[in-house]
Amino acid sequence: MAEWTGLIASDLIGVPHGFLTGPQSDRAELHRIGGDLPTVLVKQVHSPRAIYVDAPFEAEARPEADALVTDKAGLRLAIVTADCAPVLLADEDAGVVAAAHAGWRGAHGGVIEATLAEMTRLGAKPERIVAAIGPAIAQDSYEVDAGFRDQFTGEDERFFRPGREGHYQFDLDSYVAWRLAMAGVGMTDSLGIDTYANSADFHSYRRATHLGEPTEGRQISAIALPASE
User: Fold this and answer.
1) Residue 30 CB contacts under 8 Å (≥ 6 apart), including other chains
2) Cα 88 to Cα 99: distance, rounded to the nearest angstrom
3) Which pLDDT does position 1 carry in this prediction?
4) At residue 3, does pLDDT exceed 50?
5) In a domain, 47, yes or no
6) Under a CB-based contact definition with an 8 Å cutoff, are residues 65 and 39 in contact?
7) How many structural domains compose the chain?
8) Do residues 53 and 77 touch, judged by C-beta distance below 8 A?
9) Alpha helices of the chain — where are they, by DSSP H?
10) How would you classify residue 30: left for phi > 0, otherwise alpha for psi between -120 and 50, otherwise beta?
11) Within a domain: 20
12) Is residue 174 part of a domain?
């Protein structure tokens, strides 16, 4: 068997999950997350929309959403990213798991809160939920302009570090962790890995753009709710 090319988070030990690495982020590796389960994917559009799923979608019929939530055993929820933050969540006691795609636009728009609302509807409790933030673009690599900064409030100032004239360095990882904390999540683990700086292991949309390379590459993150024995 090939060596596992993925990462796991300490606070999700016991829940099948993983953040795939490697330049290909091969979908064949998904079987290592929960075994031989159907994988559920959606059409990600940088929205705040979180949806309940109880079965996979046909590729041509995937709904537009940026978070998936389920309480149905035997499913693997997956999202794809290339600088945005992948967030995997679980309330083991309630038997509810979720996967969210949290770029700045989705996080700012409320995708974290929408995901938690859907989990809560299914019986999860925020204080019992554990979350893991996977590899994403780090503050040192994430330069934004004043127009970007102006879309945030004064309360968000802590997530912006002054950069070159008229620009800032945005801390997406910390911003997503803060949104999780403000929503009442009991525990959050951030892997703290910069997709932009780690070209051997991760796709980065911004890095590819800067280098004039193809930008289609993505890595996959997934979490599973195994079928009961």
Assistant:
1) 20, 39, 76, 78, 220, 222
2) 5
3) 30
4) no
5) yes
6) no
7) 1
8) yes
9) 104-109, 111-121, 146-149, 172-182, 205-211
10) alpha
11) yes
12) no
